[in-house]
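Honest question from a wet-lab person: if I give you the sequences of every part of a complex, can you actually get the arrangement of the whole thing, not just the pieces? Trying it with mine:
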Amino acid sequence: MEITPVTSVGIDIGTSTTKMIVSHLLINSTSNPFSIPTFEISDRIILFQSDIISTPLLSKDEIDVERIAAWLKKQYVLAGIRVPDIKSGAVIITGETANKRNAEKMIHFLAERAGDFVVAIAGANLEAVLAGKGSGAFQYSIDNVLTVVNIDIGGGTANAVYMRQGEVVASVTFLVGGRLIEMNEEGKILHVSDAITPWLEKNNYRLQKGEKVSFVLLQTIIQHLCENMVTILMRGSFKKDDPLIHSYTTTTLPSVDAIFISGGIGALRFYPEPQSISDIAVYQDVGPLITCELQKTINNYQIKQVPAEQTSRATVIGAGMQSTEISGSTIYADRGRLPIRNIPVLTCEIAEDTLQKEKTLHNTIYSVLLKGKEMYPDFLKAPFAIHILGNVKTSYLLIKQLAITLNQVYQALFPKSDLMIIVCEQDMAKALGQAIKVLAGGRFDLICIDQVQVKHGDFLDIGEMIHQSTVPVVVKTLAFS
Amino acid sequence: MFEKEPLKAPNMFGTKNKRTLIDGVNKAGIEEMLRTTPARIAVGRTGTRPKTKAILQFQLDHAAAIDAVSGEVDVSYLEEFDLFSVDTCFETKEEYLKRPDKGRKLTDEAVKTIKARCEYRPQVQIVVSDGLSASAIDTNLENVLPALYDSLKVNNLSAGTPFFVKGGRVACMDHIGEVLQPEVLVLLIGERPGLVSANSMSAYICYRPRFGVQESNRNVISNIHPGGTPAVEAGAHIGTLLKKMIKQKTSGVALAF
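Yes, you can. This is the full assembly:
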């Protein structure tokens, strides 16, 4: 069987630096000849890496979109690719950059110009996950059957993600980053980010723009900052209103077997320990000092540290190579309806016993779809993807019952819709899709896919069919809320 | 050491792998490995021997495999799916195991029956057989068959009269093909039981099965059981495969994907 390479780009616009990569994802059959062919992304190959440039800004709170767009165009030429060749990938806006005035506008503008199927993503959780995948922490947790934490520290934020044997279990983002405090070689403070001010105030540190700071004070502050963060990461819990916390998915963190450090701070790992203000200020910020103090703190905890495979480029590699996944290979999709983008996900939770009670199943599905109709009154065609969640035994009886109910409720609530989209947790999309199709006939087209992890509120991009059996999928958590 | 916990029916892949774990360095890791395989790993030992429970479980699984071979599919179960039953020349289960060739040939009576009751030259002929595991049919038929019928409808394919063959081997497809002359034939047959799955089914599919067909001309979807390929998805997939065969007028290794 032919191996299809999918060209994918990743673009990371961070607080201090911007970079991009071009890669090939190889989609290949991994099954034996005696079973239904199943497909996997069998390999990810980096074709091109850009230089790491300083993120072009117009002012402190505005990104220079034109300069980024021009730079990107040049990188495509250098990489030897054309925009139509690009079939997947992501532009991610990370750290403090996401707070810039024109961030949302810019990321969508770039995603549109970066290629047909490049998605715009932002959000600390996703950023943490992608960095954890790009740094090698994700694969390490699978290969060694362990729980690991990857901390990606850039200019504005530190994104920690906990991965247990290839499963993301928690993420938490700290307001810790190299660019939060900027100063020159003489120790004159050039800028203190608003993000770090509450923490500084709480701990009675006074840093004033224009004033000089001593090496000792700066060291004390950064040591305290690192100590605070590592304590939270290792102790496994924190207060919701802790000024150091930017965002989180859960307040209870698991204990870990190993730690990875990626991001710009990870890249400075072998930088000599700074002895003076001018040693620290090589980038006019506190980056080198954070690296050094963080390392000392981690050493005190005596936890196993694994060197990250990628540091500065962990997030961009994650965005370019890990944002796309592959659906199950027995799915249903009517011709001509793919690709499709930005489909909101509505979760329909099905309990095992709902299935025996026809009425309950009807009510569950009806109430979810009705809510969807209220939430997205403007959508006419494919209002949302119905996510069938529930760890139930897949029998034909269940499939049939689901098909009857979905068909009935959908036609009642969306009589004008000509497309229905379903995402199942379990391997049953083809059977369910065909059962619905038999009932609905030609009244609406159908896309029914499975084995993709989504949750309520996510957005989905579904690509064109590959080998007539599987689709590439990008799951996006809400970029800007 | 004797453990008092009652033994359970054979474990299916991934469902209830509750084995006593030895004190390992990475307990979570071992548990994860247990989730990914039905193989008998991390069962522990006493001295140089497996524990009593592990041995009893092994014997129980072995017994289930033997039961699957010697068991019979209930006629009333087949009637639920409108399947009538005919025999191959297998005579008895003992003879069936010794003489695979006899399971490849229908009796004269069976030929007469299917000639009388089945549509001649159908586009798709569906046949169900116990093969080496009657429990494979008991477990999977109710999920495979209706999903298969849906996939035929969606792909605009028409099926002839389905029936059940008792004591069938895979190549009984060829004899049935000679008699009924279908364009494609789907045989849902019980697989040789193993110590992990006693109720696994295969779907063998062949374009114009006739005497003399090579094994390489057949396609198979194997390992259809609750811990393997889900029965509903296997059934749903067959229609797509049939459509390809009819379009390309071939099956087996020559079929392009």
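Two things worth pointing out. Chain B is about 40% helix and 15% strand. The beta strands of chain B are 84-87, 124-129, 163-166, 184-190, 201-207, 218-224.
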